[in-house]
Amino acid sequence: MTTNEALIPLFPEAPTTAEQPEAVYALLEERVRRYTMGDSTSLPVETARRLLEGILYCLDLNRRLPTEDVPATAPLKERWRAGVKVAKKTAQRAKLLYLQAQRNPPPLVNTAYSDTMESLPAFFAGYDPDFFAQEIPCSFDYPLCQPVSDSLLGAEYIQDYLRRLLAENALLRALGREELLALYQRYYLDYADLLVNLYLPAAEMVSLCALTGEPVFALLLPAEKLRQVNRLLAGQAEVEAKETLAHGVICAMDTLGLKGEFLLHYMQQTANDLLVRLRAADNADE
Amino acid sequence: MKHEEEFSLAVHMQQRFLAELRGANEVSARFGLQLSEQGMQELAKARTQALVDSGRVEFGTSAVRAITQGFCDSPYLLQEDYEATLPELLDAFYYFKNASGEQLADDELIRAMRERFDAYGGSVDAVIGTTLEALCRARRTGYVEADNREEDDAYDDE
Questions:
Q1: What is the pLDDT of residues A232-282, one digit of tens each?
Q2: Is residue B1's pLDDT more than 50?
Q3: CB-based contact A45 B56, cutoff 8 Å
Q4: Interior CA angle at B70 toward B65 and B74, to 5°?
Q5: pTM of the full predicted structure?
Q6: Domain of residue B134, residue span
Q7: What is the tally of structural domains in chain B?
Q8: A108 touches chain B (CB under 8 A)
């Protein structure tokens, strides 16, 4: 049995890495010693697997976000340590984003949003990049409109989640509470208690309003105007229709006084998803 | 990389484990206890099986050495039972490690097992048959008062 084969039971889904398995094993052995603080020579397979995942994740972090002082040719332990540093910095940045999200809530929130904001501090309290940098030690369920990629782990996941949440909040904060409430009541049966995203209906509505020349802040589109947009988009090829919607997004952002590449991209992606749904609805009608 | 040049973890670990046992033999020999080469091989297999059965892995030094050193000066451990007793103690050790939820250090657990073993005249069954709570209580209170024995464990009832 080779070292690679010996490590497989601990982490069967691990991709074949370019790392020397002997070096990974030696580092794992050292981390286990540190984790048990010399009190125990053995530990549950599950814990060992989590420790191994943490090592591989930090090595991957260092590969994706290399630092000048630790080149790719550096010994494995140095690269792992550099990865841990990146994870710690990412967690610090994520915490700043969380504080920013706390200071800038949307005009209306629902239960899922409030619960998520309450549970996120558990992440910062429990995150342990030295051993389990890949883990997310808290649970939160507020659904983003554009979810975080499943390939992101640990602090990276939380950072991206919060970045997206802040973008969503930026749009919502540009709108009026009463208009949002009316919109949610039309869009969702029970926006307050259902597990629903608060940004999605607003983002779609401002883009459509901007396209049809309706007042963006009103968040209200007469049925005739909606049919008009549908007809316009249905008569356009995919690329052209996306450009039309992108134009609507830019107009809406201008009107609302919103700026930022990330938000622009986020809203354009939301508009593209809307196009898919409009086309699917058109096809269903035919 | 050629197969024969590949680092063989299993062989390396086996060699390291056997070296540990030889080291432990030197200590236990002072108390008239020694594992034969075959006994060591058997113990190596038993340890692997015990780890698999308990869902645990061991890195670096094995607990077997600490167990042999923790038990070798027991007046109830005799050479004729030594090779048969160690695998059973090892099973019990990993079982209690899991039962303790990683809250007991190896040394503490071995001391508690040893006290139980001696208190029952060298009975491995008494160690295996007890509960973690009883084991720890005995450590805290000084071993088993007569009125504690009934609730202690199923071993006493048999």
A1: 888 899 999 999 999 999 999 999 999 999 999 999 999 999 999 888 877
A2: no
A3: yes
A4: 130
A5: 0.84
A6: 3-157
A7: 1
A8: no
Question: What three-state secondary structure class fits B1?
Answer: coil
CB pairs under 8 A between A and B: 65
Average pLDDT over residues A1-20: 56
Q: In the numeric block, which tokens belong to residue B126? A: 């008494």
Q: Give the pLDDT of residue A17.
A: 58
B7–A33 CB contact, under 8 Å: no
Question: Between residues 77 and 136 of chain B, which touch chain A (CB distance below 8 Å)?
Answer: 94, 97-98, 102, 105-107
* Domain boundaries of chain A, sorted by first residue: 3-64, 85-129+140-285
The gap from C-alpha A197 to its chain's centroid, in whole angstroms, comes to 13
Q: State whether B59 and A33 contact (CB < 8 Å).
A: yes
Collapse the DSSP code of B83 into the 3-class scheme (helix H, G, I; strand E, B; otherwise coil) and give the result.
helix
For A203, residues 6+ apart whose C-beta sits below 8 A from its C-beta are: A145, A168, A171, A267, A270, A271
Angle at A128 between CA A122 and CA A129, to 5 degrees: 130
Which positions 7-66 of B are in contact with A (Cβ < 8 Å)?
Answer: 7-10, 51, 55-63, 66
Decide if A143 contacts A197 (C-beta within 8 A): yes
In sequence order, what are the residues at sequence separation of 6 or more whose Cβ sits closer than 8 angstroms to the Cβ of residue A40? B63, B97, B102, B105, B106
Rounded mean pLDDT of B139-147? 55
User: Which residues in B lie closer than 8 A to residue A48 (C-beta atoms)?
Assistant: 57, 59
| CB contacts, 8 Å: A42 with chain B | 51, 56-59, 63, 94, 97
Side chain identity, residue A155: A
Q: Write out residues 124-143 of A within 8 Å (CB-CB) of B.
A: none
Q: How far is CA B58 from CA A88, A177, B64, in A?
A: 29, 59, 11
Mean pLDDT of A163-173: 97
* Torsional class of A284: left (φ above 0), alpha (ψ -120 to 50), beta (otherwise): alpha
Distance CA A164, CA A262 (A): 9
Report ipTM (2 d.p.): 0.81
